[in-house]
Amino acid sequence: MKQLEYAFMAKLAIHIKEQLRKGVKKPYKTIIDVSFGDPHKAGVKPLTFARQVIAACTYPKLMNSDKLPLDAKQRAQWLLDRCPGQSVGSYTATAGIPETVHKISAFITRRDGGAPSDPKNIFITAGSQWALMNILNVLVNKQASPRTGVLTPAPGHDKAVLSIVGMGGETIPYYLTEEQGWALQVEELQRALDSAQGVCKPVALYVINPGNPAGHVQSRKSIQEVIRFVSEKRLFLLADEVYQDCVQGENTEFVSYKRVLNEMGPPFSETVELASFHSVSKSVMGECGLRCGYVELVNVDPAVMKHIFTLFSKGSCSPVLGQIALDVMINPPQPGDPSYTLYNQETQHIRDMLIQNAKRVYEVVNSLPGLSCQPVDGGAFAFPRVFLPPKAIKKAKDLGMEPDTFYSVRLLEEAGVFVRPGCGYKQKKDTYHIRFCIMTPRDMMDELLGRLTSFHRKFMMDFA
Amino acid sequence: MSQQAVNGVQCRAKVLTLDNMNPYVKRVEYAVRGPIVQRAVQLEKELKEGIKKPFTEVIKANIGDAHAMGQKPITFLRQVLALCAYPELLEDNKFPEDAKKRAQRILDACGGHSIGAYSASQGIECIRQDVSRYIEKRDGGIPSNPDNIYLSTGASDAIVTMLKLMVCGEGRDRTGVMISIPQYPLYSAALAELGAVQISYYLDEDKCWSLDVKELRRALNEARQHCNPRVLCIINPGNPTGQVQSRQCIEDVIRFAKEEHLFLMADEVYQDNVYAEGCKFHSFKKVLFEMGPEYSSTVEMASFHSTSKCYMGECGFRGGYMEVINMDPEVKAQLTKLVSVRLCPPVPGQALLDLVVNPPQPDEPSYTTFVKERTAVLAALAEKARLTEQVFNTVPGITCNPVQGAMYTFPRITLPQKAIDKAKEEGKVPDMFYCMKLLEEEGICLVPGSGFGQKEGTFHFRMTILPPTEKLKVVLQKIREFHIRFTQEFS
């Protein structure tokens, strides 16, 4: 149902773009499309070093070019030497270029304060969603009665939900607490688990940290509580951490589930079964179109691992250019390298952009009566709440639309801002939200907030 | 499973175990990357560590990966892709104008002019349009609608998506899918994972692996008793067998599909790889439409293509597409929804596909080199196909059908009874036993025929014809010697 609503809005956006192209007069010249978490589409530039390495790997004659810095050429050569036939057109090993897999394990250990990471448990995958779908495929027992259940966050993006349902499983939503910055409360996990009694058999808990669409970043304490919960209730833990690079909040720190698990020591560190996901799509790289990520599996039964490997193997391997981007992401230029200054500049610029955008969104949205926004401490989206007047809700229902879809459609038509309605993310009943990407150039965000402000004021007046 | 004590320490049972995991996943096998390949990788490691072996390198003739075996990428393709990856190179005069033009066009179709942006989940629109035009040109003008084109992550992604879409029902109503024996094990793996019923139809080894409709009928009628047959899959040119179906055969299959109300899935990824004289690739779509409206407006079909094979061999880019014909609009809406869950196919693969369907034209600067390179690749493959068949047929105990197309040979091997018994002792399937021994003694990695399916009591292996000609000669010689030795050892 939600899919259809997005499809309908996407069509509308295309229609409006066409009208603008033909010169039809509108209060705006272009559509600001923030409906997807797609930084490049929004105008954020790719990282130069990554693209230089990819270009040199693709067309090795560039190794002789003076247009590329030495470290880019060296990295490209290093990678090509590890591709069969020295070509990015060859398949790689199922789990990815082995040396890159080793680097990922080193990256994880560095990130996690020394927590050991076994390369044998790491698979490079064609995007984090692909990996998640395959792990869910192992977890969701189609023949089981009652059906397999997976606890999923509400609000939470819908891809995992669609996969679980498509596989014959059930989703058990647990609600994040909006008034507390979208915090995850263990009592709510318990309530959700209790609600599954007699309905389905819960086998796993899916968390998104930093969140999507909610922009919360879990504290260490919160993560410990979740780990204790899954340990006690015997649930497999799926930790979607693709936004770990996007942390905007002051005094906010991303700490990985793996790290906390390791710090908690036995029995947890040796028994809790965990899959952690990361991706090149949502880091400051923003390389969504290259389709590459990885999953680290912890404490998984070795016999089951064999089957996971076979399942991954029938997809052959991840796109190789994506693997190259991943190699750069987890092992960027270091101080002293020719490309370090520029790389650092570019990534810092994007991080500053995110911090500023998050601040601006929080300030502007909260200044508007009828809108409120929790701090966007992390992630790539803002998820403000819209307090729709009864007249607007009624109008929406008359039109056969969800109220926040109605608001979003109006926002698109009248202000040329393309956001996603909150109904696509499983929000609490009778609450309404919109989601928009904040990984955009600063001027685009300013423009967006300007248009949103004018539109919202008018909307609230019209439906007073 | 209750807690077990191990060395006096209480051991907690796992949450996810063989007992409670998805049972369908346990049935999935994929021989092309299976146990023999894992052993080959292990041997490579040992060689690197300096451990002495009867061979100095492991030759991986198990996987259809041309570049891994030394085939060179096509220059033009890589130039455009490099320009797309790092558009600053558009200022570099070392790149030809036609490459720059195509790169610019592709970038203009990408969000933010970057191949790092998501594309529409069905694929970049102008590329789908180019694919349509390519199909129209290939098929003598028969119209192709870009709306019916779905770009995918290699052909495999599209094949699995279609199967997902069509597999349903319970018990006797469970969807049955017809696939050849032997087959490319992606099909059997996908069917196992989906819990679909695999309906095997046997290709005729004695008639050059041709397909007989009588055999299709036999398989179908038998299957009707325990499942609901809905799909017929055919790989043409074939994998592992390499047979190129005759036009008559394709017509017969289409007629059969219409009579029996089956959805046709035509896997045509090797369509440029046709070597044997008298053999020609006929696309299912073209034949369908040439059979007239009675067929062309009713038979439901999907054709698949990829950038991994043919003359490109760009497996690592994961590019491909499918064209759906006569699909019910409501089902198509479901298909569109289904592909959106995986977001979009890799954009570099989409860009590559665009170049494959839109190659340099005679009046463009890159044309001459492009044609030269493409011709050389295909000619080398044709020569290797011929050489392979020739050499294998000189070996007593090996019979090899002509490699009419694709990239593989699937010779039949006669194994002495003693070898079959020894294999059983070791808990191995006989052709796996044979291939493992070959790997350990000669460092040559092939895939046993059991990984693809074969008639009961027959044994085969699949070898790629991809190693460079000189190396291939050595490989063929080594296998020849091995086979003779093996036969003697177990006589």
UniProtKB/TrEMBL annotation, chain A:
It comes from Parambassis ranga. SUPFAM superfamilies: PLP-dependent transferases. Its cofactor is pyridoxal 5'-phosphate. Homodimer. PANTHER family: ALANINE AMINOTRANSFERASE (PTHR11751), ALANINE TRANSAMINASE (PTHR11751:SF469). Pathway: Amino-acid degradation; L-alanine degradation via transaminase pathway; pyruvate from L-alanine: step 1/1. This is alanine transaminase. Its EC number is 2.6.1.2. Belongs to the class-I pyridoxal-phosphate-dependent aminotransferase family. Alanine aminotransferase subfamily. It catalyses: L-alanine + 2-oxoglutarate = pyruvate + L-glutamate. It comes from the Eukaryota. It is an enzyme of class 2 (transferase). Residues 83-452 form the Aminotransferase class I/classII large domain. CDD domains: AAT_like. Pfam families: Aminotran_1_2. Signal peptide: none annotated. Coiled coil: none annotated. One of its GO terms (molecular function) is pyridoxal phosphate binding. InterPro entries: ALAT1/2-like, Aminotransferase_I/II_large, PyrdxlP-dep_Trfase, PyrdxlP-dep_Trfase_major, PyrdxlP-dep_Trfase_small. Keywords: Aminotransferase, Pyridoxal phosphate, Transferase. GO terms for biological process: L-alanine catabolic process.
Automatic annotation (TrEMBL), chain B:
It catalyses: L-alanine + 2-oxoglutarate = pyruvate + L-glutamate. GO terms for biological process: L-alanine catabolic process. GO terms for cellular component: cytoplasm. CDD domains: AAT_like (cd00609). InterPro entries: ALAT1/2-like, Aminotransferase_I/II_large, PyrdxlP-dep_Trfase, PyrdxlP-dep_Trfase_major, PyrdxlP-dep_Trfase_small. Pathway: Amino-acid degradation; L-alanine degradation via transaminase pathway; pyruvate from L-alanine: step 1/1. One of its GO terms (molecular function) is pyridoxal phosphate binding. Its cofactor is pyridoxal 5'-phosphate. Keywords: Aminotransferase, Pyridoxal phosphate, Transferase. The keyword Transferase applies. Pfam families: Aminotran_1_2. Its EC number is 2.6.1.2. It is an enzyme of class 2 (transferase). Gene3D superfamilies: 1.10.287.1970, Aspartate Aminotransferase, domain 1, Type I PLP-dependent aspartate aminotransferase-like (Major domain). Residues 81-479 form the Aminotransferase class I/classII large domain. SUPFAM superfamilies: PLP-dependent transferases. Belongs to the class-I pyridoxal-phosphate-dependent aminotransferase family. Alanine aminotransferase subfamily. Homodimer. Catalyzes the reversible transamination between alanine and 2-oxoglutarate to form pyruvate and glutamate. This is alanine transaminase. It comes from Parambassis ranga (Indian glassy fish).
